């Protein structure tokens, strides 16, 4: 056998990306696809193992997902010494990427650009609104970037379940706090536009509020790739990544050709080296990666949406591999170079807000005190929720107490998860357990 190839894993809910792939690789024998549930680590491991056993020509894996499943995928890829490209959010800090692993991330990181915009516009605080599981992990990246630059911003985090929910939250925000509010929406671009359109057109919306809000308008900011506005970022990244891999397989075909299973491992290493050496430029820009496999040398359009104006490009954020990044605002000739204010990092926490800590009985981390065992047992039999800090003890309870003391949080209650489960995806694609309660905002 004299060939080489790449397996493409598609996570659940990536039908659009799968369609793009199949339309662009109809006659391409170097790629083939497989749909796998990335949340099922055993299924992922079994799929990789089976494909490695069946196909001695398998050199690398491209994984496509809208959520964060890097650690699981990376462990199996490392075991088989495969080249690895991940199209999706990494949701990992650089410091958390596995040392010695090979991975390339074609999707640029937006966090540095967001912090530069916040600093340039002299925002003191923002509302960070998101609607997906990876949104909270990207929020952690945002906080990490703020901390690394030693800046001070007040970030208020809200999760929404739908466009309607987001609209209601924004209305409530502007009613309660009519100041100069800034919002970062971590939604799909079309969903963000739908929210703004509703705020503009609905008679009960922003225009019926007080004058200061009407005059200041809504300021919602975000980024997208420097590409045709009629093409989505995911479409561009899909096509660019496959063209990049195709160029490598074609340009290094003699080096990568396999004649038997005996030289498979050596050729997989050769593919990794070829991916690093290849110079390719697509619609999203040059495919250049830093030593951690993170995309470098790219340009992002800075997009701003106002109640008084449709989505418009107001600048660009350009990342350079050697000299860092810069923010170039289109409405001024001044180039804003990234700055670092040497001030103590401060993350504000609302100390008076009521908080619910959902937990599960798991000794020695969390368990019921002996003197309350009968009372708690009776509550469970009656179907009542077990809530109350006095019922619990254990390592996690002690840790929660220390954290709340440090943050000066005095109003919180510990509750057992109602169904006694950690959380797993059900047949109807919803979560149960503690994860389900968080996603459903049971206690908000």
Write the layout of secondary structure elements.
Blueprint: E1 5-10, H1 15-24, E2 31-35, H2 41-54, E3 58-64, H3 70-79, E4 83-87, H4 111-120, E5 125-130, H5 133-148, E6 154-159, H6 163-176, E7 182-186, H7 189-201, H8 211-216, E8 219-225, H9 233-251, H10 253-256, H11 264-277, E9 281-282, E10 285-286, E11 288-289, E12 295-296, E13 298-306, E14 309-320, E15 324-329, E16 335-337, E17 355-359, E18 367-368, H12 373-381, E19 392-393, H13 395-406, E20 412-416, H14 433-439
Parallel strand pairs: 1-2, 1-3, 3-4, 5-6, 5-7, 7-8, 17-20
Antiparallel strand pairs: 8-13, 9-10, 11-12, 13-14, 14-15, 15-16, 18-19
Helix pairs in contact: 1-9, 2-3, 4-5, 6-7
């Amino acid at each position: 056998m004299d060939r080489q190839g790449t397996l493409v894993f598609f996570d659940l809910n990536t039908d659009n990306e799968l369609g793009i792939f199949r339309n662009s690789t109809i006659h391409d024998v170097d790629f083939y696809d497989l749909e796998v549930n990335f949340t099922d680590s055993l299924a992922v491991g079994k799929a990789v193992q089976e494909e490695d056993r069946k196909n001695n020509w398998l050199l690398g894996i491209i994984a496509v997902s809208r959520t964060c499943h890097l650690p699981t995928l990376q462990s199996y890829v490392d075991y088989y010494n495969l080249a690895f490209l991940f199209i999706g959010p990494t949701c990992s800090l650089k410091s958390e990427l596995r040392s010695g692993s090979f991975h390339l991330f074609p999707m640029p990181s937006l966090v540095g650009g967001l912090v530069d915009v916040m600093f340039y516009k002299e925002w003191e605080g923002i509302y960070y609104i998101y609607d997906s599981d990876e949104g909270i992990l990207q929020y952690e990246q945002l906080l990490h970037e703020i901390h690394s630059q030693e800046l001070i911003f007040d970030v208020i985090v809200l999760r929404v379940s739908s466009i309607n929910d987001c609209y209601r939250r924004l209305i409530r925000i502007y009613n309660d706090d009519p100041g100069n509010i800034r919002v970062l929406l971590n939604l799909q671009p079309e969903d963000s536009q739908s929210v703004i359109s509703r705020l503009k057109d609905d008679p009960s919306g922003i225009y019926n509020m007080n004058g200061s809000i009407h005059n200041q308008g809504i300021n919602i900011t975000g980024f997208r790739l420097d590409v045709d506005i009629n093409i989505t970022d995911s479409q561009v990244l899909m096509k660019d990544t496959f063209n990049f891999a195709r160029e490598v397989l074609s340009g290094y075909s003699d080096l990568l050709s396999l004649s038997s299973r005996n030289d498979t491992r050596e050729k997989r290493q050769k593919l990794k080296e070829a991916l690093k050496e290849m110079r390719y430029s697509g619609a999203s820009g040059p495919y250049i990666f830093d030593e951690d496999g993170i995309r470098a040398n790219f340009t992002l359009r800075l997009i701003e949406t106002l109640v008084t104006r449709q989505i418009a490009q107001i600048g660009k954020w350009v990342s350079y591999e050697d000299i860092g990044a810069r923010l170039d605002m289109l409405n001024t000739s001044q180039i804003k170079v990234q700055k670092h204010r040497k001030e103590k990092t401060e993350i504000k926490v609302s100390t008076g807000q009521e908080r619910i800590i959902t937990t599960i009985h798991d000794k020695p981390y969390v368990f019921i005190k002996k003197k309350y065992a009968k009372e708690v047992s009776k509550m469970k039999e009656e179907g009542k929720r077990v809530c109350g800090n006095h019922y619990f003890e254990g390592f996690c309870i002690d840790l929660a107490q220390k954290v709340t003391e440090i943050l000066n949080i005095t109003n919180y209650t510990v509750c057992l998860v109602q169904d006694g489960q950690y959380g797993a995806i059900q047949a109807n694609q919803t979560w149960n357990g503690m994860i389900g309660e968080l996603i459903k905002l049971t206690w908000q």
